[in-house]
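Entry 0007
Protein: DNA damage-inducible protein 1
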Amino acid sequence: MKITVMTADEQIVTLDVDRDESVENLKALLEVETQVPLQQQQLLYNGREIKNAEKLSAVGVNDGDLVMMVSRASSSASTADLSFNSDGSAVNPAAFQQQIRRDSNTMAQLFQADPELAQAIIGNDLNKLQDILRERHSQKSELRRRQEEELALLYADPFDVEAQKKIEAAIRQKGIDENWAAALEHNPEAFARVVMLYVDMEVNGVPLKAFVDSGAQSTIISKSCAERCGLLRLMDQRYKGIAHGVGQSEILGRIHVAPIKIGNVFYPCSFVVLDSPNMDFLFGLDMLRKHQCIIDLKENVLRVGGGEVSVPFLQEKDIPTNFLDEVAKQASSSGAQATSGTRENSRTQTEGSAPNRSQGPEFEAKVTRLIELGFGREAVVQALKFFDGNEDQAAGYLFGG
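Output (C-alpha cells):
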C-alpha cells in the first residue's frame, strides 16, 4: 500500500510499504529519504504517536493515509498544532491550513486528488475545513468497517440465507466503491461544487447579477426584483399559473417587454414573474434563443447577438452566498418547466388532479433501489416525481446532477 508522510519542514514523502510493516522499519525508510535519524523521528497518525514496535495495520494505517513526522527536537506546541482529533478534525485548523498552503507540491496534489479539500484549505472558512476533514475521516472509517465485514463474510456459512444476502449487498457496494474510487482518480472535479453561470446585467437601469440557465424554459424575475426595477406596475395578471419543475412555484403574471442591458447594448426582454424571494433574475432559454446567445465555457463568457457582445461569467467570490445556496433548488423548481402562457382560467388544469404516483409499494421499491446507488431519499423522491416515476430517467438525472 502507499502512504504519504509529511515532515515538519514541509517535505512530502510517498512510500510503498506492506500493511504489516513495523513502525520502526518505516522510520528506517524515512531516514534514507529525509536524512532525519530514526531516533529523532516521531510519527503521528490521527493525532496519536505510533510506537516503534507497533505494526501499521494494528494502528489503522491504510492505503492512501497521511502520517505526520516531526523531529523530537521540535517544540511540543508545534507537534500538537499539526495533530488530529479522534474525529479526524485538526487540533489547530489554522496551523494545519497554513502548513499545507506553504507546500506548493502538496497543494498541487490536492487539487488533482481532492479539489473540495484543496478549495477549503485556500479559503477562509475554518469550520468548513474541519467539516471536510471529519467527512474524509468518516469515509475512511466506513471503508475499513466494510472491509472487516467482507472479511467476516468469507468465513460465513454458505447455506445461511442471511449471510448470502449480506454477501450480495457487499458485492454490490464494492462495485459502487470501485466506481467512486475511479471517479476520484479520473474525474475528481466532479466532487467539487460547480459554480452556476452568472453575468452582470441591468434590468430597466438597475444592476443585477443574472443567473444564466439554458435549462429553464422562460426568463424569470422575482416579484421583489421586479418592484426594485420599477416593472411591477407592468405585470399582466392574466398570465397567472403554476410553474412546474422538481417542485412548483406560483406564477404571479408576466411583464411583456422591458429593456435589459448586457455589456453596452440594450435588448428587449419579457419576463415571467414568480413569488421567489431567493432568486432575483433568471435568464432563460426563451431570451437566449431570441438574442442568439452562446454560452462559451472555453473562454468563460456569454456571447450575445451572435457574438457582438461578450460578458464574462462571474467568479464564485463575486456571487452572493445566498444565490449559491438557493439557485439550484429555485431553478429546478421554478424555472425548469415554467409555463409562461398559463392563464387564470386554466390554472386548475395546471395544478391538475393526476393520480398520486408517489405512493404505493412500487414507488417505494424504486426509491430503495436509487438510494442504494448512493443518493439521498429527498433527491430520489423529487427526481421520480419529476419524471413521473420513470426510474431510468430519474437515475440519469441524479447521476448527471
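Curator remark: Residues 74-79, 330-357 have pLDDT under 50 and may be disordered. The longest strand covers residues 247-262.
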